[in-house]
C-alpha cells in the first residue's frame, strides 16, 4: 500500500513481481534500505511478494533477510573505523 501525495519510486515491487512471474522468472529480493526486518520486508515482500510471483507463474522466490543482528552487521563498525582511520 502506498501513502501520501509524493511520487513513489518506480517500478513498484508488486508490479515488477507480477511481470517477472508472468515471464516464468526466478527472483531474489533484498531491501538494502532496511537495517532490520520489519512488517514491510517480512509481510509485504517475503510473504505476499512470494505468493504474487509464484501465482503469476514465477519459478523460484528468495527473500534475502536484512542484516538484523548478524555478525556481519555487528562487525560493520570495525570496518567503518578501519576505512576512516586517520580522517577523524
Describe this structure in words.
This protein is mainly α. The chain contains 4 helices and 2 strands. Helix 1 runs parallel beside helix 2. The radius of gyration is 17 Å and the shape is elongated.
Write the layout of secondary structure elements.
Blueprint: H1 13-22, E1 27-29, H2 39-55, E2 61-63, H3 71-74, H4 76-83
Parallel strand pairs: 1-2
Helix pairs in contact: 1-2
Main sheet summary:
2 strands, parallel
Number of strands: 2
Structural class: mainly alpha
- Strand content range: 5-15%
User: What count of structural domains?
Assistant: 1
Order of strands, main sheet, comes to 1-2
Enumerate how many helices there are, as a single number. 4
How large, in whole angstroms, is the Cα Rg?
17 Å
Shape: elongated
* Span of the ends, CA to CA: 43 Å
Q: How helix-rich are the residues, as a percent range?
A: 40-55%
Weakly predicted, low-confidence segments: none
- Mean pLDDT across residues: 85
SSE pattern: HEHEHH
Quick description:
This protein has four helices and two strands, in the order H-E-H-E-H-H. It has helices at residues 13-22, 39-55, 71-74, 76-83; strands at residues 27-29, 61-63.
Core attributes:
single chain; 88 residues; two-stranded parallel ribbon; mainly alpha
